[in-house]
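Quick one, probably user error.
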């Protein structure tokens, strides 16, 4: 498949939800609640995706105030199309919509170099609080307390 057939798009339509959830479910970022994913995606100001015809290959979304701070979530590339620059394309498309802001995100384990390559650095005092149904998420440092 030629890479010049990959089309970047901004925006989101609910009719894509099956494509979106099946893309997530090809990776470790499983999403079983498609209603929640659909609403969360609709409520994100910036959505970037890469398509080959009708096939969704990559996606990512951003919540931003467009002035100071942006949060990036759910950047996913179809495993068959990873390491071809599509993840970088989605990230650059998201960041281009609020270029002067501080960007925040949480990497999945093992993908930190992808973000380091894009200029991200570890954030020394980043903190997060997850709802109880997440249980003891391995993304939170349960040992570290007041120092
Ligand atoms: C993480 C992910 C989005 C990266 O997308 P991708 O399309 O494979 O990445 P790209 O091809 O755009 O990579 C850009 C650069 O980062 C590097 N890179 C990407 N993933 C990497 C990894 N896991 N480890 C080391 N380097 C990595 C690439 O080699 C490339 O380097 P280069 O610019 O020097 O050539 C993709 O692997 C993915 O969807 N993973 C599963 C879902 C997930 O965990 N998403 C992250 C959510 S936080």
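Nope, works fine. Designed sequence:
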């Amino acid at each position: 498949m030629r890479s010049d057939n990959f089309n970047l798009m901004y925006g989101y339509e609910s009719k894509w939800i099956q494509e979106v959830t099946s893309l997530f479910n090809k990776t470790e970022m499983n999403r079983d609640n498609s209603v929640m994913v659909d609403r969360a995606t609709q409520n994100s100001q910036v959505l970037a995706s890469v398509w080959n015809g009708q096939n969704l290959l990559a996606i990512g979304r951003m919540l931003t105030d467009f002035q100071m701070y942006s949060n990036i979530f759910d950047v996913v590339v179809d495993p068959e199309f990873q390491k071809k620059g599509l993840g970088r394309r989605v990230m650059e498309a998201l960041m281009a919509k609020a270029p002067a802001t501080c960007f925040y995100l949480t990497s999945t384990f093992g993908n930190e170099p992808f973000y380091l390559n894009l200029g991200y650095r570890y954030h020394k005092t980043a903190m997060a609080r997850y709802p109880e149904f997440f249980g003891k998420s391995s993304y939170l440092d349960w040992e570290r307390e007041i120092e």
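The helical segments are 17-24, 34-42, 86-96, 112-117.
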